[in-house]
Design a protein that fits this description.
It contains two helices and 29 strands. The N terminus is likely disordered. The protein has 439 residues and is mostly beta strands. The relative contact order is 0.11. The protein is elongated, with a radius of gyration of 27 Å. It is 3% helix and 46% strand. The longest helix has 9 residues.
Length: 439
């Protein structure tokens, strides 16, 4: 310890992190951090433990006695990736001569937590490492945005012909679609203007009665579902339900259209709606040509939104949840994921490839990012917002130009190290880019 203090006195450009970020080591075991402190004992300096890291989570590793760790020597902790490269986490002397690391991975992967004696030495002294997740993986989140009405063509394969209150059989989406943190390649279509990713309900009863606001776990077949809107309609009388795929990878679309279907018991009131799922961006678009009201049945209730598999998280269009009665004509809304793992798209929602015309650099950056056109002379940005992993908006700018000859700067100097998502609205569309702050 005296040697380290002497070096610090002679050079003002040294820091504790600058002394050693250790490498190498010998594998000793595997750990699975949780939200409570756990310990791993009989570990020696020069050995490492392997764990799976999730982007956005914050991991704590401690040799401090207050956390349950222990080491009788001057210790160091280094975080490495699974190839043995330094991954950005290091500490020496946090609590006396013992170490504590608080660290967040920039991407999902397998990592190593390496223990050493200063300076990157090994020993055979029994050591206990304490570890936990300070922040669990973030709940998936979505922004809900009003968009102009612009429906896809009403075509495709017919579903649920002359059938009321039923789920379809299993339908291939045609690509992997991320919904509330899980990838799906199949779905069900329900006759009451809904889509579900719970394929266990194939060909089962599709509930029509609406009795609670979202989120709610009270109606089992409405979990893990898109409601476009969920209301009691009767396709056994007339109207069609069709689905098809459009576009080319990686910007394909899965389209479901509920066309000219009468409301139950109000058969002259006709509903037409459409759902579009976008590959890569994982966005969901709901288009309502006509959403009438049947106030004399089912309370006139209808819900437009999306709900997770547990019924604990939902995103609903404002004013369109139970028990509100509402109508809509030529109306569109888009649900855009803003958190990982679904909200990591770096391209447009359609196949135009316009997102590649905008560069974000440097990325990663310590806090200041530049936007610049690659080929076109300029674009007008209608809205630019930066979200953290919890879906909180930390930056907002409206109505500005970005040019090929000059940069527009986004200043996140006060944002901590981590992953962020830039959402841009332009005349060409809405898209998301990932930004990494590294300090």
């Amino acid at each position: 310890m005296k040697m380290k203090l002497l070096l610090l006195l002679f050079s003002g450009c040294f820091s504790l992190n600058a002394f050693v970020q250790c490498s190498g080591g010998t594998a000793f075991g595997t750990i699975t951090p949780s939200t409570s402190w756990q310990t791993f004992g009989n570990l020696y300096a020069g050995q490492y433990l392997v764990f799976n890291g999730t982007a956005g989570s914050v991991y704590c590793f401690s040799l401090c006695s207050v956390d349950g760790g222990s080491a009788s020597y001057d210790s160091e902790i280094t975080i490495l990736d699974n190839s043995g490269n330094y991954a950005g986490g290091y500490n020496n002397d946090s609590c006396g001569q013992q170490s504590f690391v608080k660290w967040s991975p920039a991407s999902n992967g397998t990592y190593r937590v390496l223990i050493n004696e200063f300076s990157c030495l090994t020993n055979t002294t029994s050591t206990t490492l304490a570890y936990k997740i300070l922040v669990p993986p973030p709940a998936p989140c979505y922004s809900v945005n009003s968009i102009p009405y612009s429906a896809e063509p009403d075509t495709g394969s017919s579903l649920l012909v002359n059938i009321d209150d039923s789920w379809s059989g299993v339908i291939p989406i045609g690509f992997n679609f991320c919904f509330f943190g899980t990838n799906y390649s199949q779905c069900l279509v329900g006759s009451n203007e809904v889509i579900s990713f719970n394929i266990a309900n194939a060909n089962a009863f599709n509930t029509w009665a609406i009795t609670a606001a979202l989120p709610s776990a009270g109606t089992a077949d409405m979990l893990n579902t898109i409601m476009a809107p969920w209301q009691d309609v009767d396709p056994s009388l007339t109207g069609t339900i069709k689905c098809y795929n459009a576009g080319t990878a990686p910007y394909r679309r899965f389209v479901v259209t509920f066309s000219s279907i009468p409301m139950f018991q109000c058969n002259t009131s006709i509903s037409t709606s459409q759902v579009v799922l976008y590959e890569t961006s994982n966005a969901i678009e709901i288009q309502l040509l006509d959403k009438p009201l049947c106030a004399t049945w089912n309370g006139g209730y209808a819900i437009e939104g999306i709900q997770d598999p547990a019924g604990t998280s939902a995103f609903v269009v404002s004013g369109r949840n139970y028990p509100t009665q509402w109508t809509a004509t030529s109306d569109g809304y888009k649900f855009v994921p803003t958190c990982p793992p679904c909200g990591v798209a770096t391209s447009m929602d359609d196949a135009s490839g316009w997102a590649n015309e905008i560069s974000v650099f440097p990325n990663p950056a310590s806090g200041k990012f530049n936007l610049k056109m690659n080929q076109f002379e300029s674009w007008r940005i209608e809205d630019a917002a930066v979200y953290n992993i919890y879906g909180e908006k930390i930056y907002w700018a409206v109505d500005f130009q970005i040019n090929r000859s000059s940069d527009f700067q986004i200043d996140l100097k006060d944002a901590p190290t981590g992953i962020y998502f830039l959402r841009l609205e332009t005349a060409q569309g809405i898209f998301t880019k990932k930004m990494v702050v590294s300090k």
